[in-house]
Amino acid sequence: MAEVSFFLKDEVEQLSLGSSIADRTPPGSVIFLQGELGAGKTTLVRGFLQSLGFDGNVKSPTYTLLEPYLIDNQQIYHFDLYRLGTPDELEYAGGRDYFDGESICLVEWPEKAEGYLPEADIICSLNYQQRSGIQGRCCEISAQTDKGCSIIRSLSN
Q: Which residues have a Cβ under 8 Å from the Cβ of 91 and sit 6 or more positions away?
């Protein structure tokens, strides 16, 4: 499958990449966001949502597991599964119901619910990285489906 990577020097570039991903993501897409605490997963989501017209506060739903957004009749669900004790907890909370093939689902810490989540279209892995003396982030995006390949091809152009 296709892959692309970006070096992001600062928050502005993280927001911009989130925006670029949003502009290319069709309804029904599932995006996994991986990386250490503070790597910029929620910042990428903020850029994604702002690009679609959301102007409110975007926070990580660490304690609530889920933050829903309805933007121009498009349902978007932002999951943060960091505090999930076991994958079963997502099942008990009705987590599968949100992956309906029409909503866009952005999932931080997807490994916490392995086996309960559908396949991601793309996986965005964020890691701290230093280049030319600049401390930033490397975001590697890999496609897992044909839909994901289309998103990556569009990002690469």
A: 116
Q: Which domains does the chain have, with CATH numbers?
A: 3-122+131-147 (3.40.50.300)
| Pure H helices in the chain | 11-23, 41-51, 87-92, 146-156
C-alpha–C-alpha distance, residues 96 and 23, integer Å:
25
Closest CA to 137 of 31, 20, 10, 3: 10
Structure tokens at 109: 């810490």
The vertex-129 CA angle with 128 and 135, nearest 5°, equals 95
Report pLDDT digits (tens) over 65-93.
899 999 999 999 999 999 988 888 888 88
